[in-house]
């Protein structure tokens, strides 16, 4: 999963540049906006997703239901309505340029949730975990077994094992990288 996310992360700069360049002649294509919005959600960059949503022209939002559907997933993510995220992604017919990204969002959301649970709880009720993951009981049991979690039949709780968090920590950008990005945003807003 991390390989897929890093591949999409590398697309962000390219899509942001396309958006900036196309703003000189009008607005970016709905495909660029849709992909960029979805990738922001995938990499858990909700502030940039919200800013992008605000700058997408109203006519593009209204004429492209998939962009609205991506944003609906973003709303569910920000509200932490996990089971709604999965069902919304599964129920939407995504165009080819968004399908893989949306499936990655679903899986990475589950993975993040499992990581958070393993860090925060010594035990967690199995039926609540099933709801949070949006999986069947059997699929949930398979998922936690792969992680080395144990299920206590007598009380219906799972006991998570601590996961290695070194893989999910994003590298901290340098001051120069942050200033460059800020300069690009200010330049975009001024033009």
From TrEMBL:
<dbReference type="GO" id="GO:0008180">
    <property type="term" value="C:COP9 signalosome"/>
</dbReference>
<keyword id="KW-0963">Cytoplasm</keyword>
<dbReference type="InterPro" id="IPR033464">
    <property type="entry name" value="CSN8_PSD8_EIF3K"/>
</dbReference>
<dbReference type="Pfam" id="PF10075">
    <property type="entry name" value="CSN8_PSD8_EIF3K"/>
</dbReference>
<dbReference type="InterPro" id="IPR033205">
    <property type="entry name" value="COP9_CSN8"/>
</dbReference>
<dbReference type="GO" id="GO:0010387">
    <property type="term" value="P:COP9 signalosome assembly"/>
</dbReference>
<feature type="domain" description="CSN8/PSMD8/EIF3K">
    <location>
        <begin position="29"/>
        <end position="163"/>
    </location>
</feature>
<dbReference type="GO" id="GO:0005737">
    <property type="term" value="C:cytoplasm"/>
</dbReference>
<keyword id="KW-0736">Signalosome</keyword>
<protein>
    <recommendedName>
        <fullName>CSN8/PSMD8/EIF3K domain-containing protein</fullName>
    </recommendedName>
</protein>
<dbReference type="GO" id="GO:0000338">
    <property type="term" value="P:protein deneddylation"/>
</dbReference>
<keyword id="KW-0539">Nucleus</keyword>
């Amino acid at each position: 999963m991390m390989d897929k996310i890093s591949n999409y992360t590398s697309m962000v700069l390219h899509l942001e540049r396309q958006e900036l360049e196309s703003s000189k002649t009008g607005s970016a294509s709905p495909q660029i906006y849709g992909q960029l919005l979805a990738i922001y959600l995938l990499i858990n960059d909700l502030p940039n997703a919200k800013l992008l949503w605000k700058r997408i022209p109203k006519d593009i939002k209204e004429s492209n239901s998939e962009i609205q559907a991506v944003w609906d997933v973003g709303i569910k993510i920000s509200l932490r309505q996990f089971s709604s995220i999965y069902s919304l992604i599964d129920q939407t017919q995504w165009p080819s340029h968004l399908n893989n990204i949306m499936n990655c969002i679903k899986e990475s959301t589950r993975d993040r949730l499992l990581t958070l649970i393993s860090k925060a709880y010594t035990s967690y009720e199995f039926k609540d975990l099933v709801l949070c993951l949006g999986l069947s009981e059997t699929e949930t049991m398979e998922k936690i077994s792969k992680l080395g979690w144990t299920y206590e039949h007598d009380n219906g709780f799972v006991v998570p094992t601590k996961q290695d968090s070194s893989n999910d920590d994003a590298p901290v950008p340098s001051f120069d990288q942050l200033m460059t990005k800020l300069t690009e945003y200010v330049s975009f807003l001024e033009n």
